[in-house]
Amino acid sequence: MPRVLRLADCEPISRDALPERFRLSVIVPVFNEARTIEQVMERLLEVPLPLEIVIVDDGSVDGTRALLAERIETWRTRVSNGMSLELVLHEANRGKGAALRTGFGQVSGEAVIIQDADLEYDPLEFLRLLRPLIDGRADVVYGSRYARGAQSDSPGWHRLGNRLITIASNLLTGCDWTDVETCYKLVRTPLVRAVAPTLRERGFGIELEMTAKLARQPGVRLCELPIAYRKRSYAEGKKIGLRDAFRAFWCIVRYRLKD
Q1: Residues spanned by the domain of 36
Q2: pTM above 0.85, yes or no
Q3: How many domains is the chain partitioned into structurally?
Q4: pLDDT tens track for 3-47
């Protein structure tokens, strides 16, 4: 199994340094994020990169869907050359994994990254995460909340839980990640297309399933960079919980043994 290239930092990449016609596909899974989705979209539209943004609303019932319908055309008028914006609707809530699988089927860029619809992650990190991929040093880049140099305000219990899940995943994949459950997974599109048809998880377990299946791809080069992270509380809309932690351990074992 491949080792992870761990970088302390990377110089942010500029649009001029990208290959001709390069686009980064950004999948935004959304479920009941009426309080934050506009701010997330404002941040994405300010990223100085050619982005293909695919929003997948996973059956929201808190007004998110109406807000998206109201704002989508305004956002489209603001995308610059080389950018695009699409909205896909699930009629009922099916889980983050299902939303990502839908998004993977829509992308056409040269690389794909996931952006949660909360305010925990800053999309300006894309500029740094892209550097090792564009430089030809990596095919998969994880933005780690817990690598040396990361700026994270996670409480101790959250760090411990993530650490245990990451250790278990590493033991069974042979990798040495520091944060397998990070949202920021940047992957070359051919690899996404290789694993997407095999993905099964409907919920947060897709983080572990993707990690296991990407590690098995022949010749894959893995890389990790520290990122900044601001954890939101459950009062602010945090959704992942103890049940998801148990599911994560189950997924680690399941996808080590079979697809």
Answers
A1: 15-257
A2: yes
A3: 1
A4: 899 999 899 999 999 999 999 999 999 999 999 999 999 999 999
